[in-house]
Amino acid sequence: MTEAAPIRRTAEPEVDELITGAFIAVDGDTEFEDGWVAISDGRIRAVGARSDPWPAAALRTDAGGRLVTPGLINAHHHMTQNLTRAYRPAVNGTLFEWLTTLYPLWATLDEEDVYLATYVAAAELLLGGCTTSSDHMYIHPRAHLIDAQVAATTEIGFRFMANRGSMTRSVDDGGLPPREVVQDEQAILADSQRVIETFHDPAPGALTRVALAPCALFAVSEPIMRATADLAEHYDVRLHTHLAEDTDEDDYAIEVYGCRPVEYFERVGWASPRTWVAHYVYGSDEENRRLAAAGVSVTQCPSSNMILAGGSADTVRLRSLGMAVGIGCDGSASADSADLWQETRNAMLLGKYRHGPAAMTARDALDMATRGSAHALGWADELGHLRPGACADLVIWDSSPVAQAGALTDPVEAWLRSGPSRAWRTYVAGRALVADGELQLPDLEDVLHRHRAAAARIQGV
Question: Residue ranges of the chain with pLDDT lower than 70?
C-alpha cells in the first residue's frame, strides 16, 4: 500500500473531501471493492463504486487500497482508570478484589485528573479507530467531574456520551466502595438533572450526549435505581449499568434482594429499550429471552472479562435472540488498553471459541463494534454506518505490509485476522483527528506529561 498524499481538485467543489481507492464496508450489508466516499458538512454525502461518477471535491484523498469502515463505537468504558493502569497490587485479583484495591485510589480524583484521563483515553481510542465513546463515570468524590470530561472531549472534537454514574452503598451499608466515593440520593439526582440540562444535546449531529448510569446493584440502593429510571424517562435519555458480570454478583443479589440480578433489574423498572448493560455474562437462557424481548442492549468487554477471568457474554446466542450487542473497552485498569480494534478482534475470537469457527466472522464482529454499539447508545440513525446522511465518522485502516502479505481475497477478514491494524486516518464529523497514523492533537505531549504526574501521585510512586 502506498501512502498517497491528498491532492487538490481544480473543479468547483461539490463536497469537502472525496476518499477514493478504498474497499468500503458501508453498513454490514453493502460493500464496494474499489469505491469512494464523499464528505460534506460533517456528513456522508455519497458512497459509490469506482465506476460511479465522482463528485467534485475541495480535497481528494487516495486511500491507497486500504479498508474504510464506519468509526468504531465504544459502548462501555471507565476513562479515569487509565490513571491506575496495570497497578501491581490489583493486577491478579478477582473483580471484587480488584475493585476494593482501587476504590481508595480513585477516591482522590479531582477535576484536573479527570480532564487528563479523559483526554488520554480519547486519544488512545482514536488511534484504534474509535470515533464515539460512552464513559461510565460513577466515582464522584468531588463535584463537576463530568464537566471536566466534556471539556476534554470537546477540546479534541471527539464524539462522547457522558454517563453520569452513581454509588450510594458504601462498605458501611454493606456495599463495596469506601464512604468517600458514595453520595446521597438527592445529591445524585440533582447533579444528574444539572448534567443533562447542561450537556445533553439531542440535536442531529451532536458531539455530546448524556446517559444516567448507577454503577451496579451492589453499589446503589433500590430507590436510586427507580428514581434514575424515572428521571431518564422524563428527559428522554439513555440508561446504563453493569449487570450479571460475576458470580459474586449472583450471591450478593440473592442475599440482599432475595432474587437473581436480572429479576432485580426488571423489578426496579430497567428492562426497557432505553437501557444498555455492560458485560452481562451470567444471565440464564430464560433471562436472556426476557431482556431481548424487552429491548435491552448488551455491551461485551472481551479483554476485561478475560483478564478478570469472569467469563464473557455469549454474544452469538444473544444476537440470535434479536438483541443488539455492542463492544466496549471497559476500564484501563482492568483491560489496560483502550483499543477498539483489539476488542473487536477478541470478540470475534471468543465467538468462534465458544460456538465453532463459522459462528463469528470478522463482519459480525465489525457489525457489533459499529451498528451494535450505536444501537446501544440510541444513536443508530446517525452512527455505525456510512450511508448517505450519516455523521462522517469513519476510519481508513492501515496494517503492516508484512502482516498483510498474501491476504488478497477478503480485506475485512484480513483486517481482524492479519493485524494488528491501526487507524491511518480517523474522522469525526468529517475532521481528520488522526492523519498518516498520527494524532492531530497539538496539546498531547503536555497532557501526557501532566497525566504521568497525576498517575504517580494517585498510585503513590
Answer: 1-11
